[in-house]
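Model it.
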Amino acid sequence: MAPIARTVPAPAERFSAKTKPGPWSLRRDCPGPCRLWDGAINEDGYGHFWLDGRTVKAHRAAVALADGAPVPAGLDVDHRCRRRACVNRAHLEPVTHRENVLRSSNHVAARAAVTHCPADHPYDDANTIRAANGTRKCRACKNARARARRAEQGAAVIPLPTHRICERTAA
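Modeled.
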């Protein structure tokens, strides 16, 4: 008996079989409608696809199959249309992680977009203090608070001695 010949479809064929047409993107820089992933989706809404012997995210596979090479190491794939299930190559762009986060609409991007403190001082190199946790502090406001605190304390400041006083007594 002859063995049954099994044809394995190419990755691009398997990939396109797991997509369906989606709605038009509401963003100006995304041409055409989204192409939505219809295969396995994780709890975060990203599709998964088996490619080259391992599971990869569907949007990364879309870029790899369209470009003929994997996404370079250290780059994220940004969904310009903001739909996690979209695998339309025209809506996907390899960018650094920082750029991907700053393009989003989360609180990190919102804070990074702020250019002035609440007192309208600019966040520039000369006026910005970086806190240990990475947040920005306004140097002008910090100095104003310190001046106000010192003025409030006023005469309560005890002058330090100019010479060393020995507290020891002879036994």
